[in-house]
What does this fold into?
Amino acid sequence: MPCSQFLGRISTRALLLAAIATLLPATSNANAQSSTELARLQHEAAQVTITRDDWGIAHVNGKTDADAVFGMIYAQAEDDYPRIERNYLVALGRLSEAEGESALWEDLRQQLFIDPVELQRLYTQSPAWLQALMHAWADGLNYYLATHPDVHPAVLHHFEPWMALSFTEGSIGGDIERVNLKALSAFYTQPHEAGTASVQPELPPTPRELAMLANPDRFDPDTLDTEPQGSNGIVIAAPHTVDHHALLLINPHTSFFFRSELQMSSDEGLNAYGAVTWGQFFIYQGFNDRAGWMHTSSGVDAVDEYVETVTTRNGNWLYKYGGEWRPVTERKVTLRYSTPSGIATRTFTVYYTSHGPVISADGSRWVTMRLMNIPIAALEQSYLRTKARTYSEYWKTMELQANSSNNTLFADADGDIAYFHGNFIPRRDPHFDFTRPVDGSDPATDWHGLLSVEETPHLLNPKSGYIFNVNNWPWAGSGESSLKASDFPAYVEMGGETARGQHAIRLLTNHPDFTLDSLLTLAFDSYLPWFDKPIPALVKAWDNLPQNDPRKAQLVAEVSTLRDWDQRWSADSVATSLAIFWGTELRSTLTPKIAPDARIAGLAVQEYAAKQATPDELLGTLAAASAKLTTSFGTWKTPWGQINRFQRITGDIQQPFNDAAPSLPVGFTSSVWGSLAAFGAHAYPNTKKWYGTVGNSFVAIVEFGPRIRARAVTAGGESGHPSSPHFDDEAQRYISGNLREVYFYPDQLKGHTERVYHPGQ
It folds into this structure.
């Protein structure tokens, strides 16, 4: 199998443990485990050492990789068990058991693709080394629950190893979320009686349209009132650094507190540090002692919809495929959901063709969706890349072709830098437009395998000396050395340029040799390029007003403020406040006038404002912005930091905000405006101040010399418990960009150790 060179690092002992564990009884309640089972878990725990540094970050070491997995998931549970549980309730399609009937459609969407019975079958087919890790994962969680009777899970009182296959990819917003819940519920709340279906001429919404409705953050940076979720990744080649060591910037933009930060190591060669999505047993974005990787959301088209012509015969549904009618597969899905009087159930009959599950209807036609659903390979790839220490080893993990939604920025101690596009890309007939639902009855619309890694966009050691991706297309990611769109099928990239992309190009082009410090400075550069064209257009509109126009006097101070602004954010900047409020009003006014296809490019409002917006639109939105600032804060001359705040007052997953409670000023802005350091904030029903919930969540810079040098910061702090000193001890560093040193080696932990223990102590 691919990546076999890594498997020798998984010990025979771990495999034997996995085999023995399958023979031991499992209980239905983690707090009532048999003494034999508990003794086994205690023996496992004794093989693991957890060292908490002075920021509360867990450095987990085990004799085997399985031991390290046991310890790291135990440490995660210590820090925030509710986030682990919720992630698996979502992944398993069981959220409604905790949150009630309102979550039924989300659960049904999940279980269309994630069938627990199928996952249990796949578990038995997983390679022995992976089974060992899944066993250790379940054991670590169950041991945590057994040793913490004060923890009261909402639903999941016991974990089974196969459950790890439900959540194999650590990014925020998976492919399944492209299924529109309103369209799904409309289909599955209607009875599907026997009768002949006829083809209707009108096509259903395109995948992109449905995706924008279901998850607009990922597709349209100009969607109002949302923060584009994605990430920044930058790698600098060794010859272009002062010390001739490759550099890596890791800067995911997700909802805050979405990942844990930790280190996991073993005597089998595992030694990885970075960000871990709560509940998973692999470092998602991070580095080992020789190499590092950063994932950014990809614009690849890896999901397709098919219009199915259906009919019934003898009481059975059939769908047309070529010259034949094939039976539609039916499956019963029973969902449990909580009610005030207890648990209730609802059963759905769900339908499948060879293309995938039925997700909606257009008249009498059905629409199915096909996407990546290969849990074993996905979990293998996610784990094995953490042990890849060279470019060639990382390439081998990519050959598993189980990463559908992420680009990768890579750097290593050999001085290499590289870019990999999403590596699950179906091979399609280019005669069809796969941006729209295609005819499922035509066999030519089927996928024809996958593009090989060699065939997908990838780049190694470009002459420019750098590669970046900030959720823009890859065709500008390395200056004149960039990949060319003409070399690849159109469906490998459906996105466009972004304001962040413009910003990165500006900073990286003709930059002198980098250091760790200068890369950090770049990551927090305060320029906001979105305003490059709109502000001159605004100033021109005001300059051209007749002297007797009342707006000439009314807006003179506001226009002067923006005219003189250097377009750099800061907490004490009045111009930043005015610009953000004006830009928000401008987008609200102009976005409906711009075609959706243009908005997807991300810069449409910026371009429209400069070339086509009327003076009334430009000046009217400025007047509205000034009025809103005055209404909320007493004057439009309010510094940005008095508006834009970081607050963490509870450990709730959906955090409340309160103007009367302590909060901190934040200088950086939403990435909509081109800020590389992103802070997506807005006011809430009971607040006037804006509070951030998404954007910079984990930031790390890494230098790959003879010894790793790294700095990092996590939003707020490592712990989800308000009583912990590590609940918000990183908040000031987070908002100032003052990253702390990463203690990667044992000698670095000397003098910085808070606690050393075995799980359960």
